[in-house]
Amino acid sequence: MSTILSPLYTAVSWIIVQFHSLFSLIFDPNSGWAWGLSIVSLVILIRICLIPLFVKQIKATRNMQVLQPKMKAIQERYKNDKQRQSEEMMKLYKESGTNPLSSCLPIIAQSPFFMSLYGVLHNIASGHTVGVIDASLLDSARKAHIFGAPLSVKFTDSASKIMSLGASTTDVRVVTVAMIVLMSLSQFYTQRQLMTKNVDMTVKTPFMQQQKMLLYVFPVMFAAFGINFPVGVLVYWLTTNVWTMGQQMFVIRRNPTPGSLAYKERQERLRAKGKIVDESAAKGRTAAVEGAQAAKRQQPKRQTKAQRQSAGGQGVTKSEVKAEQSSDEPQGAKPSSGSASGSGRSAGVGQARGGQRKGQGQQRSRHPSKK
Predict the structure, then answer these.
(1) In terms of Cα–Cα distance, which of 188, 192, 210, 187 is closest to 64?
(2) pLDDT at 119 over 60
(3) Are residues 161 and 26 in contact, defined by beta-carbon separation less than 8 angstroms?
């Protein structure tokens, strides 16, 4: 196994040595700060390189949540035909462009570095040079302590081995237990945050049950395996858990799953800032604007006195035209009730006009004519 991972041992040890040279300008080269921060910087560098895989993991996890109802329907429909069920599942993944393994990519990609770091620290604890770490760097790394615990010791190491590295059993036990507890709590909080804030609670699927199970399984796994890891590996693991927690908080706040609690909180924040408008309020404002425009279109235009008199004269002329048309009808035709009423109106208009002309003639006779 060490032969297969020897190129990674060299790569990991070289990165740690470069960071150690940098931090040695600030801290004592043999101190736990110089070596511990080198491991933390290694984690940050690896996680930055894994950001594209993390984005794929987020998309794959979200797509799996969306597909859960369809997957459950396929399982119920072909529960007696496992081959057909698998074919339909693969067809569903292909149509939606979802890869179930994408959610595991960051963990899979980190595994070789994690195993390489474990091998490097194991060789340091055993007093063997590894990668680019020569005898002088090996002696410096063996002297490095973090809160009194050497980087290369484990919780299960014997008291004689711990004392040979210049530390006490109590310090090692306290530091390792504290790191294991912090690792478990950070993993629990990360998983709980995913379950309570970034899951659409309106859809009940087996995926949610699996997430609830992992909520308690992962912390137990960290506690069980953590006692067998060197302090330097615990530093690596704790750092990557804290990074994951912060990265997930950022993603949940900026790009939450639609229908989740985090999505509702984000909508409220955007609404408070005025970046989005409530649909009901927008519809109310639109209706008010349309009503005002309709009222503005229906408002009659103001007319002068001459325009109103001209309109009245045109109305009389139209009535006279109708009266003349009715008088041209054949005498043998029986007038209908509408024609009779129209003729009556036309006669009334004619009489009114005759009276108007008579009045005008009388008015003109009262005044002398112009010479």
Answers:
(1) 210
(2) yes
(3) no
CA distance 308 to 285: 38
pLDDT band at 336 (very low <50, low <70, confident <90, very high): very low
pLDDT per residue as tens digits for the range 276-295: 765 555 555 666 666 666 55
Q: Which residues pair with 146 in a beta bridge?
A: 149
Task: Determine the residue type at 288.
Answer: A
Taking the domains of the chain in order of start, what are their residue ranges? 6-273
User: What pTM was estimated for this model as a whole?
Assistant: 0.63
Which residue in 327, 353, 321, 354 sits closest to 339, CA to CA? Answer: 327
In whole angstroms, what is the distance from residue 247 CA to residue 241 CA? 10
Integer Cα distance of 37 and 40 in angstroms? 5
**Which segments of 25-152 are extended strands (E)?**
145-146, 149-150
Instruction: Give the span between the Cα atoms of 194 and 215, in whole angstroms.
Output: 10
With a pLDDT cut of 70, the percent of the chain lying above it is 67
d(CA 307, CA 319): 19
Place of tokens 């509702």: 264
Kindly give the interhelix angle for 135-143 and 105-126, rounded to the nearest 10 degrees.
100
What is the token pair recorded at 326? 């009715």
Instruction: Please count the other Cβ atoms lying within 10 Å of the Cβ belonging to residue 306.
Output: 8
d(CA 88, CA 118): 42
Tokens representing residue 96 in the block: 């939606």
The 10 Å Cβ neighbour count of residue 111 is: 10
Which residue type, as a one-letter code, is found at position 254?
R
Euclidean distance between CA atoms 261 and 202, whole angstroms: 11
Q: How far apart are CA 349 and CA 323, in angstroms?
A: 9
183-194 b/e with 16+ CB inside 10 Å = b? bbebbbebbeeb
Alpha helices in 98-168 (DSSP H): 105-126, 135-143, 159-164
Backbone φ, ψ for residue 245 (5° rounding):
-60, -45
